[in-house]
Amino acid sequence: MIQLIYDGTYEGWLTAVFEIYEYKFQDVVFAKNEASAALLFSTHHYVMTDEEKANRVLSGIKKRLSPGGYSDFYKAFFSDLDEIEQIMFQFTKYALASSKNIEGDFSNSAVWDVRKATRLTRREAHRMEAFVRFKLTKDKLYYAIVEPDCNVLPIIESHFKKRYADQRWLIYDAKRKYGIYYDLENVSTIELQFNAESNSSKYLAEICDEQGEFFQNLWRVFFKSVNIESRKNMKLHIQHMPKRYWKHLTEKIPTLK
């Protein structure tokens, strides 16, 4: 067994796939950033992300998939499902070995599993596009904290860049300890440690723009006013807006005192 230890990026995974073929590795398992202690007798192979190697694998995959099929394949990588790298590698092997497009062959377990992973990522990305709530800081930066089930920031960044092109913003994934920052021109990935009490009244009062809090309170009032008490259906409400998202939603955070 050979552990391929890569940096956790999509390009790093593509490089690892290239090196499997380059070195003719047979029995492999992928590990992000560090070796897995569960595989005591495995051999370690450290993968250094290489743009040229990654692009060669990427080119081969794209030639065998439709544009939509490749887009789905890419999204699957960010699902954070267990062994998604291994599943995608099996899919890649099948695609590269076939003379036909294989993306609709759901009799193949890897194809079906990639499809399921894509659905998870797509659903979570859609929710994040709907549930991100920005707060305005005193230095005029709009920031939002999210904790998605899937690693969707790379998927949703183009949506927010188009929608909020005229303002600086930061979306921070508290679960994975990194964020995407837009500076009015480009989106960049940043790593930082956010305040653990970032939603507390005291913390928000210290960093938030006073006018920003005024408009957040207006949103809370509006949200409350459009809810008809006699028609309240909490089961349906939670189905569309699961409770795990509530702590970062403006309408669910009490008004600052």
Automatic annotation (TrEMBL):
InterPro entries associated with the record: DNA_repair_put (IPR023875), DUF4130 (IPR025404)
Ranges of residues in domain DUF4130: 83-251
Top-level taxonomic group: Bacteria
NCBIfam families the record matches: SAM_7_link_chp (TIGR03915)
Name this protein carries in UniProt: TIGR03915 family putative DNA repair protein
